[in-house]
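worker-3 :: picked Histidine--tRNA ligase
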Amino acid sequence: EAFGSNEPELDVEVIAMGMDLLQHFGLSDLRLEINSLGDKASRDAYRQALIDYLDPHFDELSDDSKVRLHKNPLRVLDSKDKRDQEIVKGAPSILDYLNEDSKKHFDRVKALLESLNIPYVIDPEMVRGLDYYNHTIFEIMADSKALGEGYTTICAGGRYNGLV
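worker-3 :: tokens ->
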């Protein structure tokens, strides 16, 4: 957790500390995935676009996603239901709905990660499970047999300016 700054540098500092800590513990095969949920205006624009996309698929959605569709449609993107996952493959990307300020914030995060030689993958479908996130969200994953098959999320978080 970090408080007191709206700057993207703080997002990168938190991510870098997480990566450093996990590497210090001996984990070497790490993958960082990031996304931006933008500010409130960006999320509101995307929310409507997502509803417009998902509404015609309403009958095909899982029961959970039907409930989420008008409450918090971003959570449909996070569904574990196979049918929902197929439907959202064609959904619009939140990155296409970021306003100028949100784009600048995310571009700065990416540039800072690159300057620190921290490789990352952008996952435009990542939304995290909590509704209060804005701007940068991330997951650090490890590929370790001790954690199961494939990559497993071992550290995750994001920015939530309006919570405190």
